[in-house]
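Our consortium's second objective concerns turning raw sequence data into structural hypotheses that experimental partners can test. To show how far this objective has progressed, the report includes one record in full. It was chosen at random from the queue rather than selected for favorable results. The single chain below, 165 residues long, was entered without modification.
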Amino acid sequence: MDKEIDSNQDERASYSQAAYSWLMLITGYYKRVNDDLDINMDEMMTLNTVSAHWLYKINSKNNKSFSDLVDMSDEDIKKYFSGSRLSILSIANILGQPKESTRRRVQKLIDYQLLKKDENNGIMLGENYTSLVNKFADKTAAELYKLTTRLGKIKWYQKKEEETL
């Protein structure tokens, strides 16, 4: 009986540690978006949506390493958006945001040269995107590594898997 109580206490303790680690990752990400990139989270989510579309297109053809992505030229990026017209309305629908708000966010990101419009008015990544990723992704990857390492040390994954079995 005491072992069962200890096990439940360990599980609760590990959940609080996991939750804290997760929230610190998200808080750090939020702060870096504001401080390092000078954009807000809604703008970052707009940028992430376009980037996810790009990565989906890349992954459907062949996987790339981090350096492959960062070293892509504007023309290389454009190739992956070819034939795929990602619209402001599509982005708004994906994010569940009003179209006009999304249009303003896209325009700000175009002004920052993080996004641009192709010849068909589709939204794609801009010329400053890869330099942003190069600086920003290293820190995000390091923070994600710390989170997964922490979760592994407290064996949070294993406990969650056991609950579902």
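The partners drew two points from this record. The two ends are 22 Å apart (CA to CA). The beta strands are 115-117, 123-125. Both points have been shared with the crystallography group to help prioritize constructs.
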